[in-house]
Amino acid sequence: MRYDYIIAGSGIAGLYAALLAREHGSVLVLTKGSIDECNTRYAQGGIAAAVGPDDSTELHLRDTLEAGAGLVDEEAARILVSEAAERIRDLVRFGVPFDSDGGEVALGREGAHSRPRILHAGGDATGAHIELSLSSLARMSRVVIKEYCLVEEVLTDDGRAVGVATLDTRTNSRESFEGRSIILATGGCGQLYRVSTNSDVATGDGIAVAYRAGAEIMDMEFFQFHPTALRLPGVPVFLISEAVRGEGALLIDGDGRRFLPEYDERAELAPRDIVARAIHTELAQSGANTVFLDVTHLPPERVSARFPQIYRHCLEHGLDITQEPIPVSPAAHYLMGGVRTNVWGETTVTSLYACGECACISVHGANRLASNSLLETVVFAKRVVDRTLAVGDQPTATPPTLDALALPGLRPAEGPSLDRPALQAMMWDDVGIVRDGEPLERARARLAAGQALLPEAGDRPSHELVNLVLCGRLAVEAALQREESRGAHYRHDFPEPREEWRRHLVFRSDA
Ligand SMILES: Cc1cc2nc3c(=O)[nH]c(=O)nc-3n(C[C@H](O)[C@H](O)[C@H](O)COP(=O)(O)OP(=O)(O)OC[C@H]3O[C@@H](n4cnc5c(N)ncnc54)[C@H](O)[C@@H]3O)c2cc1C
């Protein structure tokens, strides 16, 4: 069967692209789980847009550039901030019920934003509202949606993407689809890490299939760790949004000491990497498992009204956050890198596009500004669809390739095999918040040997493991090469940024 658009992924990027593309041709959305299982539905804080009375796109741009630590592409970031308001209007048109306050849109504040500019829905249930609104609309429209259908590979012909090979994850049967424009919207790879806020589906599949199809992969060493994930014994990791600190929450240790002012004058509102590393240091020094996020000094009704999801979730697990501080520690959260694209979402493979968290357009650089990621998904998904219209039936002109590296060869298959928990533990310990040459070398060797031992993938778990290991290798290789600290990438043995490293690291399978 041939479609005008084949879209892999049903998070905000995939569904929003599908809702736009349906106006211009036949659309097939493939998603490896149920339609609503994705990182999008867990987003709490909201979506950034400079729409407040004292705000401007220039201020939003400045904050984005600053957070990205010298690696943000200014043209892409300018597009991001200037097209924000229009894309928010689209989301409203598609039914997303953003919160208002006295007739005006309600705007929250998050770390490293110089103005309140975070639109939210249902308080801290923004992602759930977005996902539900878009998926309900997509289900009612002409879009063909195939759930439990995993994209295994992008099919190419003479260097051009022409379709996808898929696996039914319930029967393990295979099928292929042809398409004019192939759009990857498969999300990030937070499942690389033992402690992660990400959905189970975040296994880097789109990055791996794009790499195998010959596309360039960029910035894989930049992984953002969120400082505050709820850590209660026996309870899955659950994000406590940065917006909670924006409302005045304080971070304290087990003795009630507020420690962040010792690390950065912005204290609780410092960028995520600084807060995450400060907590990492405090935990290493004290030997404790958690620090605490304290909102007990805020009016209880304000806490429960502004953060109903967090409040309810904690209460269900026996913690009344208006009365007791919340035990938290950092967790893997967001991949800044991914499939390299230009500002039209074009990858370096003709007719293959990428948008959302699996793409790297360089709007986040070395560190993402909070709530710019949902914004990125819609701004660049729209541009992908616009681009497909501009090129019509012609193959896309791909962006120029960059000097790229190839992964070193595999090690002989030796040592214990690598399963998902072992991979996640190794990535957390050796390629985590604070990195060092020796553990990185160790991880590189273990991954290369582990990859050689992997059996051929035949079901969803084995495909995900193959893809995670490939993403892990790309991340480790880049982290080893980058002998400096910048944004979310911190090397204990190279603690400062270095001017010669104000550049991107790109990988290509045939480099
Ligand atoms: C807990 C949490 C809170 C967050 N809060 C915020 C926030 O407040 N503001 C903000 O801006 N960002 C936030 N983020 C980040 C943001 O939610 C994500 O970056 C964004 O939702 C990614 O959207 P996406 O469509 O690219 O990917 P996702 O929403 O993850 O969707 C990926 C889709 O691809 C599918 N898929 C994956 N592999 C395959 C395959 N091989 N074949 C077929 N389908 C596949 C998945 O099943 C899924 O449907 C948060 C993230 C998390 C985890």
Topology (SSEs and partners):
Layout: E1 2-8, H1 12-21, E2 27-30, E3 47-48, H2 57-67, H3 74-82, H4 84-93, E4 100-101, E5 104-105, E6 107-108, E7 118-119, H5 126-140, E8 144-146, E9 149-157, E10 160-168, E11 174-184, H6 205-212, E12 217-218, E13 223-230, E14 238-239, H7 242-246, E15 250-252, H8 272-286, E16 291-294, H9 300-306, H10 308-316, E17 326-335, E18 338-340, E19 352-354, E20 359-360, H11 372-391, H12 420-430, H13 437-453, H14 460-481, E21 506-507
Parallel strand pairs: 1-2, 1-11, 2-8, 11-19, 18-20
Antiparallel strand pairs: 3-7, 4-5, 6-7, 9-10, 10-11, 12-18, 12-21, 13-14, 13-17, 15-16, 16-17
The structure holds flavin-adenine dinucleotide.
Flavin-adenine dinucleotide is lined by residues 8-14, 30-33, 37-40, 42-47, 126-127, 150-151, 185-187, 197-198, 201-202, 205, 239, 334, 356-357, 371, 373-374, 377.
Q: Can you tell me the CATH class of the domain at 403-507?
A: Mainly Alpha
> What is the H level of CATH, i.e. the homologous superfamily of the domain at 403-507?
Fumarate reductase/succinate dehydrogenase flavoprotein-like, C-terminal domain
CATH architectural group of the domain at 403-507: Up-down Bundle
Spans of 5+ residues with little confidence (pLDDT < 50)? none
If you had to describe this structure to a student in words, what would you say it looks like?
- This protein is α+β, with helices and mostly antiparallel strands.
- The protein has helices at 12-21, 57-67, 74-82, 84-93, 126-140, 205-212, 242-246, 272-286, 300-306, 308-316, 372-391, 420-430, 437-453, 460-481; strands at residues 2-8, 27-30, 47-48, 100-101, 104-105, 107-108, 118-119, 144-146, 149-157, 160-168, 174-184, 217-218, 223-230, 238-239, 250-252, 291-294, 326-335, 338-340, 352-354, 359-360, 506-507.
- A hairpin with a 2-residue loop joins strand 9 and strand 10.
- Helix 12 (420-430) packs antiparallel against helix 13 (437-453).
- It starts with a strand and ends with a strand.
- The model has no long low-confidence stretch (mean pLDDT 95).
- The structure holds flavin-adenine dinucleotide.
- The site of flavin-adenine dinucleotide has 41 residues, from helix 1, helix 5, strand 9 and helix 11.
